[in-house]
Fold each of these.
Amino acid sequence: MSTTAALPRVPGRRDEILGIAGELFAERGFTATTVREIADAAGILSGSLYHHFDSKEAMADELVREVLDRVLAAYRRIAAGALGPEPALRALVREAFGAIAADRATVALLVNEWNLFTQVPRFGYLRVLEQETERLWVGVLEHGAAVGVFRADLDARMLYRMLRDAIWVSVRWYRADGPVGPDQLADRYVDVLLTGVRSRP
Amino acid sequence: MSTTAALPRVPGRRDEILGIAGELFAERGFTATTVREIADAAGILSGSLYHHFDSKEAMADELVREVLDRVLAAYRRIAAGALGPEPALRALVREAFGAIAADRATVALLVNEWNLFTQVPRFGYLRVLEQETERLWVGVLEHGAAVGVFRADLDARMLYRMLRDAIWVSVRWYRADGPVGPDQLADRYVDVLLTGVRSRP
DNA sequence: GTCTATATTGAGATAGAC
DNA sequence: GTCTATCTCAATATAGAC
């Protein structure tokens, strides 16, 4: 019973290769990364990659799907929970920066190749997931306005996109292993968003 | 004297082709756009492009340089001007959204291909321009904090990047020919940044 | 300034042996 | 699971005629 005991994350060759591919995609870009480079980095020949994956595209697909599914599931839990508007917003933002910290390479891949991927039929789910995400976040913002916690005169959709763009693109410069942790950065973003930068007497 | 009278923007074949290339780069991505597609869209054959430009890369280079030079020049004027911190910040943000409105395709190209371009030696100036831009914006924010207009406890560099990312990536969804003009959107972003979204009694 | 024709290269992917 | 060997294709770019 011990040999088949585990799904528990023994990385396995396949996942190892996938991780290597993800790092290269993030660093050099998806198109600019060749299957030969991936194979080299994994210590095998390019043809051998195709024992594990159908195509280069399939590798990126798998990376992106996994991260987005996890993030969206977390968003759903937060939006469905009984948190007040501010704690809910804070939890959403923390979740996003948490993903950047936990899956930096994949998030960078997604941010950098968004325009490319959204044109490939295989990645059609990206638009779908994005729409649900927008609904969830906008829901939290509008509810907050409805109960008087957030200003009533705000465009929730614009606000969501402004925040979303600021958060995700931070993957291009933010290092989670530096002095500022992801929750900390999340709180700073939320703080600015909530109270603004104008000094008050 | 009338034949050589003008630099005044007669488009000319070359600029026309460059504009077509820019639209395709923005829409399909730089790498995914082939010189044949550009040539097709311009109504010529791919080889003929090389009468006007050295390479596909050179086309993108020219597009990006022109826009960034113009934007940075405007930033310099604003930062050097005698505006107060809030009007200066507003002017900077308006300038950025103005560029998105005026040169949507080129800004999209730059945002989408940032990771690619910054790895190509030819585009080394991107990092340089970005650094000066950061200095200018951070200078405005820090001056504002020093004179008590902005909160003193803020991380100006983080704030700049947050705002920069939010502004530029909006090129992926914002349409300047829609109901909200660029100055209007700029003012909304600045409004949120200055006063926050928390409702106050 | 554009076309014809083509050189050249480098990519993703496949088949079958080991 | 990896290697050997190779196919196939599409891309950028060039040379010289018109």
Amino acid sequence: MARARSPEKRAAILEGAVLEIAENGLGAATAKIAQRAGVAEGTLFTYFANKEELLNELYLELKGEVYARVNAGFPQKASLERRAQHVWTTYLDWAIEFPMKRKASVLLNVSDVITADTRARAAIGRELVDAALTELEGRGGLKGLPAGFAAATMSAIQEAAMDFIAKYPKQRKDLTERGFLLLWRAVK
Amino acid sequence: MARARSPEKRAAILEGAVLEIAENGLGAATAKIAQRAGVAEGTLFTYFANKEELLNELYLELKGEVYARVNAGFPQKASLERRAQHVWTTYLDWAIEFPMKRKASVLLNVSDVITADTRARAAIGRELVDAALTELEGRGGLKGLPAGFAAATMSAIQEAAMDFIAKYPKQRKDLTERGFLLLWRAVK
Amino acid sequence: MARARSPEKRAAILEGAVLEIAENGLGAATAKIAQRAGVAEGTLFTYFANKEELLNELYLELKGEVYARVNAGFPQKASLERRAQHVWTTYLDWAIEFPMKRKASVLLNVSDVITADTRARAAIGRELVDAALTELEGRGGLKGLPAGFAAATMSAIQEAAMDFIAKYPKQRKDLTERGFLLLWRAVK
Amino acid sequence: MARARSPEKRAAILEGAVLEIAENGLGAATAKIAQRAGVAEGTLFTYFANKEELLNELYLELKGEVYARVNAGFPQKASLERRAQHVWTTYLDWAIEFPMKRKASVLLNVSDVITADTRARAAIGRELVDAALTELEGRGGLKGLPAGFAAATMSAIQEAAMDFIAKYPKQRKDLTERGFLLLWRAVK
DNA sequence: GATGAATGAGGTTTCATTCAT
DNA sequence: TATGAATGAAACCTCATTCAT
């Protein structure tokens, strides 16, 4: 059952999953994941009913981690631009700091193992971000477009920016700032 | 002479691969792919040495198909904006028309089975697009950023746009146009 | 603790391998071997990483079994002739008693799956035999010939003797004795 | 059918089989054999009904080749010792000259694909050898032992000798001569 | 709860043989 | 006759999951 005795072990398994998935894709073997986590093959299944659940939980964990970062220090009273920039920068920093997590996150995202329910649950914790992005969507460039388009666009440009930051780490600061400018010009 | 290798059969296998991958991810079974293509399990391996080669060939095929479309009717003499818009629209149309191909393309793209060599070979046929995008990179929004950033940004925004067009097909025209405007404002 | 790996199961797999190989050669299917051993196909691979390892381990097992027999009751203080005869007789008896093992052993021997390392490791446990045969090589018939030639010659004549004993089991005793006489006259 | 149009092609296939079998054992793929022979996969089956027949034919070919050599220049009127030595030397020379053929021959010999009928047919052409060996069997060391034991013993010692000649080619002459002496002392 | 041996379905790939060309 | 594409059974091996310990 999913009643975890040791949160450390649970975390270790998720961590192992990140590494294995980043290296071998979603086809990563549960046995390898367990091994990386330093637990027995069977132990994995006392923390997660099956592989699918593990992947969905991992998705939630990764999203949750990012949102927690974004929410901490969120400049709630600042201008829309400052708030948007906070979201932009925080996520970019996280992705650069944890490239494996980002890789796993991307793979989970495009796969079909993540259920609609999981995606919905991942939205919780994203209220502040959503509020800012919704405000953005009332603006010039995005007015009239479907809800969520701003978020999608931002995240899309971020993916591009991240790939380049990964390739040219020295230009990280520049790419982060100029990337946001690009976005801002697009949507403002 | 013995029977000649049939381009139709090769195409059928690639087509089967697209469908299976779109439904089941890159873990799609070669046996299922062969079945979809209407050939025997073993036949797949007379056309592709192994699954990895099949996936790499499929990648080339999909990229090639898109570039062929883009190149056909490319307004070489037109303004940069018109050329950029041509690229934008053509790719978007292709992706909307063949959602399975797009899905497979995305999965291949983020996976690690596509070799650097294959990615390099895929670049052939993209000269016109590259020329336009390179010109774009000399412009205001992107000046000084690494080469390829324009292409990445465009493709990133396109991915976002496509997701929404898939969800709201009725707004296709609007999303296509407004999406490009977004991009254009960002980079000009 | 989980279930411990069972030496009985390991032995059963090796036993199954002997039978299958004796009947079908080294091409014997791992599935058939597992079936003979009364375990699941997959179980075989928890005991041996792959078929090659299984074959190498089997080789060691068979050699080890013979040497154990030879060493038990080895007349260490007796004359060279008596010691040589002990080796001769013991091996011959083993081969007659376990024709399947001998068959498997022969096939493994001439195949290329047995690594140099395995062959080297098999030498351990053969010290007594080697000592006797080395002493033999200092004698008339073999003096000046490369080390190991005595062993090779003995084993060669034994192979011949065994084939005949297999064909004429009633003359077993006579063939065993006369065969040794042959050898002895050759090398003394 | 086995009605060969081109003896050259047939020979090429057998030659290819020798090389492939020497390298990969009897599991050698017919396609690879055909490739080595410079003919198409299917062509192999116009010369040999199936793989089993190919292997049996190859066995006959190899045995035939050796016996042809032995018979050519057979000192029919010479002493038994000289005749035995002729057999000994000729075979050893052949095996040293064509190590691949010898390897294939050994593998075929210990396998079960060679039918009793094939083995019987291989005996044709061995009359001179058999006559000499039969005479040998009437002698001291072998008297009373089953027919064929002399041949088996000789061939057994030869195998040992060959292994060593292969390892120490410089001692070839010495090993050939001393090996025969060994045999001769054993049986005379 | 933790462990890892056991399982067997399923995956990729090979291969002898057939047969259209 | 020669060719090599086509076939599908069968080979080796992996893996998610179960369960005895």
